[in-house]
Amino acid sequence: MNALLPLVARTQSEPPNSSAPSFVSVYRAYVHFVFRSARALGVHPPAVDDVVQEVFVVVHKRLGELREHSNLRAWISRIVVNVVRHHRRTFARKSPHYRVCDTPREPDDLPDRAADPCEAVALSERARQVQRLLDSLDDDKREILVLAEMEELSVPEIAESLGLKVNTAYSRLRLARRAFDEALARDRARVDGRMR
């Protein structure tokens, strides 16, 4: 993300577009959202910085096109989803086995909100489990579930982000939640079988 700093510095001297927010304010407000979304959407940890940078390059190029009453978070979410999709397609072409060779996420990097070490271990394990379950979903289900559950976008915002009709977004979200619950049940059954 340090590669973006010259771009950020350059835009500070640009005259602001009266109808659009400045790039600097958008970057500062949404950089953590974009980073978190890219990770949750399955971007490999070594590539997250590149994907985040690409998202903000697109934001910088298209910020002037943003309509005055547009939902900025939904607009950025759409860019994130499109950049991540492009990244996955490109990566899959280079290495069709990239999911098998996936570098493990680092749930231990989560902020430590646990009161004691046992609670911290349990929190870390739950984070790993959620990541495994998200990795088991197809991309469409994963995208809509991440936007709804992790990023807490409303269904109309998700529909706008993914270019769907609202009813279609509701239907896909219901199917994604069902698929996640089924994957969770399978994971619990597997763990229970090992414990016996």
What does this entry look like structurally?
With 196 residues, the chain is an all-alpha fold. It has a domain at 1-103: RNA polymerase sigma factor, region 2, helix turn helix motif (Rna Polymerase Sigma Factor, Chain: A), CATH 1.10.1740.10. The protein is built from eight helices and no strands. The longest helix is centred in the C-terminal third of the chain and has 30 residues, at 166-195.
Layout of secondary structure:
Elements: H1 5-12, H2 23-40, H3 48-62, H4 72-94, H5 117-136, H6 139-150, H7 155-162, H8 166-195
Helix pairs in contact: 2-3, 2-4, 3-4, 4-7, 5-8, 6-8, 7-8
Q: Nutshell version of this structure?
A:
The chain has 196 residues and is mainly alpha-helical.
Q: What would the CATH topology of the domain at 1-103 be?
A: Rna Polymerase Sigma Factor, Chain: A
End-to-end Cα distance, whole Å, is 47 Å
In total, the number of strands is 0
Describe the main β-sheet briefly.
none
Mean pLDDT: 80
Characterize the overall form: globular
Assigned CATH superfamily of the domain at 1-103: RNA polymerase sigma factor, region 2, helix turn helix motif
- Going by CATH, the architecture of the domain at 1-103 would be Orthogonal Bundle
Contiguous uncertain segments of 5+ residues: 13-17, 99-108
The CATH first-level class of the domain at 1-103 comes to: Mainly Alpha
